[in-house]
Structure formats: C-alpha cells, structure tokens
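Format is chain and fold; as here:
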Amino acid sequence: MDNIILQSLIEFIVGYVVVFLILYFFYYRKNKKNKKGLVEIEYLIARFGLKLKKEDIEKMVMPIVLMNTFIIIFTWVFINLLPIDFIWQLCVGFVLVVALIYSIYEIYGRHIAKKLERRKK
C-alpha cells in the first residue's frame, strides 16, 4: 500500500513539472501572440463580469497554467489508481475533469472578483 502511494506521489510530482512546463510554454506564447487573450480568461470575464486591465490579464496566465496542470495531473494519477476497466476509467476521468474545471475556475473567478472589488474601494 505504501509503495503505491509513494509511486503515485512521484508520478504526480514528475508529471506536474513536465505538464507545467509544456502548458506554460504553450500559454505564454499564445498569450503573447493573441491580443484578445486566452479562452479561460475570456470565460472568467464573461462569467463574473470582470473589468480587467492588460496587466491583470498578464498576471492571470500563471495561475491558469497552475490550475490546468493540477486538473490534468490529478485526474491522470487518480484514474491510474482505479482498478477498473479502461472504459470506466475514461468515464470517471471525464466526470472528474468537468467537476474540477467547474469548481476550480469558480473559486478562482470569485477570488478575482473580490480582489477587483477591494481594489475599487
């Protein structure tokens, strides 16, 4: 049992670093090329009615990369721990990804909205 936990922890850490570097490079380059912004930022702006400056948008790239990396790696490690058939792993993984995306972006959006509200005062 301890061996499985240690192996999963190592898999999580190594996977997190690798996926983080890939996503950061991708998002950083996309954010520099695309003046409009990332899809995630557009979603947060529309969902929470945020009025963001260009500096605010640039500061949001790193948290978005960290959140997306966590969602991908957590789902990957969790699914690998399940001793079920592949098709059921896909189903559970899909539900988990959707739940994590919704919940993490909801929390982050509320945090940004409160931060901007405090800045106005």
User: Anything to note?
Assistant: The mean pLDDT is 90. The radius of gyration is 17 Å. The helical segments are 2-33, 39-48, 54-59, 61-81, 86-120.
